[in-house]
Design goal:
By secondary structure, this protein is α/β, with parallel strands linked by helices. Helices cover about 45% and strands about 15% of the residues. It has a domain of about 220 residues: Rossmann fold (3-Layer(aba) Sandwich). Helix 6 links the parallel strand 5 and strand 6.
Amino acid sequence: MMKYISTRGNAPELTFEDVLLTGLATDGGLYVPKDVPQFSPEEIESWRDLPYTELAHKVIYQFVEGCVDSAALQNMLNDVYSGFGHKAVAPLQQIDHNEYVLELFHGPTLAFKDFALQLLGRLLDYVLERRHEKVVIMGATSGDTGSAAIEGTKACRNVDIFILHPHGKVSEVQRRQMTTVKGDNIFNIAIEGNFDQAQDMVKASFGNQQFLRGERKLVAVNSINWARIMAQIVYYFYSALNLGGPLRPMAYSVPTGNFGDIFAGYMAKKMGLPIEQLIIATNSNDVLHRLMSRNQYEVHPLQHTITPSMDIAVSSNFERLLFDLYDRDGAKLADLMARMNAKKDVVSLDEDKLAKAREQFDSYAVSEEMTVATMQEVFAETGYLLDPHTAIGVKAARECRRNARIPMITLGTAHPVKFEEAVLRAGFDMPKLPHHLADLMEREERVNVLPADLDTVQRFIAANTFKD
C-alpha cells in the first residue's frame, strides 16, 4: 500500500485515503508519495492504444491501491471522462511543425481543473460513504478551481462546499460558473480582497479547525491535495503516447500559477516518461521565473491581469519540488520554507539545488502585451484562438525551446470563452459558450460578499454547516 510523507518531515505517514481527507500535513507541509511508482519504457509502450480512461487507471491505481478497489476506480474514471465534450478527452491540436496544444478544456467547466476535480468528488463520496463521515470542503480560487470543485462535488452526499474567490477579480463566466450552480450544500464567498488573502484564510483554517467544533473535518480541493496532482499526471502520458513516446522524448510548456500542473509533469518524468524539458510559463506574477532566472525568491504585491487564473503571488506546490531538490530532507526544507514564508527578505536556494532545478526546468514571464500578441499571431498562422493562459504557454515555449526536433506541447488550460477581456483586447469576436452552458448568463446567481477577515469567514462557514 502506498504511503505518503510530509515535505517537512515531522508529520505521520498516511495512506491515500487519509491524505485525500487531510490537506496540509500537521507540520504545515504537503504530502507526497514516499516511493514514486516506476514504469519501464516497455510497459509505457504497451499502453499506446489504450483509451484515456484505461490509461488513467494504469497511472492512478499505483497511488490508491489498498484504499480504492481497482474495479471501483475504473468505474469512477469511466463516469468522469464520459462527461467530457470530446471523445478523445484530451485531444492534441497542432499549431506548427512539431508544436502542439494539448486541449484540456473539454470538461464541464471548460478548464483543466475538471480532470482532477471531477474525480476528486467521486473519490470523496466513495471514501466518506464507507467511513460514515461528513466533511467541509474549503477552497480558494483565482478563477477555475472554484467552478471545477463545485461541479465535481455538488452531488456528494457527505460534503458542504465553501469556495472563496476575490470579489470582482475573476471573469464573469468564471464567476457565474460558480454562483449559478444550485445546491443546498454549495456556498460561494466573494472576499473583499485578493486571491492570496483568500488562500491565506484557507491555510489558516486548515491549521486551526476549532470553528468546526470537532464535528467536521476540512478537506482541500486546491492542488495541495495530492489527488489533484495524481489525476493530472495522466495527460502527460496520454499526449506523449499519441506523439511517439516513450520512443522519443517530449517537451512541455505549462501556464502555471500554483505549480501544481507542471509538478504533475515532473512526476510523470520521475515515473519513467522521457520528458526532456519542462517550461514554467508565468504572467507578471512571476515569483517562480525570478527564482529560476536570478535565484531570488521574493514575494511581490499581486498584480491583476487578463490571465486571472495565474494571478498568484505564492506558488504552494513549489514546496513539493524543493523537497526533492533538498534530497527529501524535511528539516532542511522546513527551515527554507520558514524563511520563504516570512516574506521579509530575499531568499536564495543553494547553488547546487538551483542547478538541479535548471537541468529540468526553464521559465519565462509573459506580459499582457505579449499575451495578446501571441493570441493574434497564432490565430493569423492557424485560425486557432488560444485562451490567454495558453497563449502565455505558447509564447514561453517559443522563447525557451531547447530542441526543435522533439515535440513541444503547450498545455491548453482553458477555453477562450472564459476570458472576454483578453479575447476582445486581441480584436476577436467572443466564441459561443458550449451547448451545456448556453444559458449561463441568464441563470440566477447566489453569492455572499464578505470582508477579508478570517473570523467572519469562519463564523459564516460554521453557521451554514451546523444549520440544524
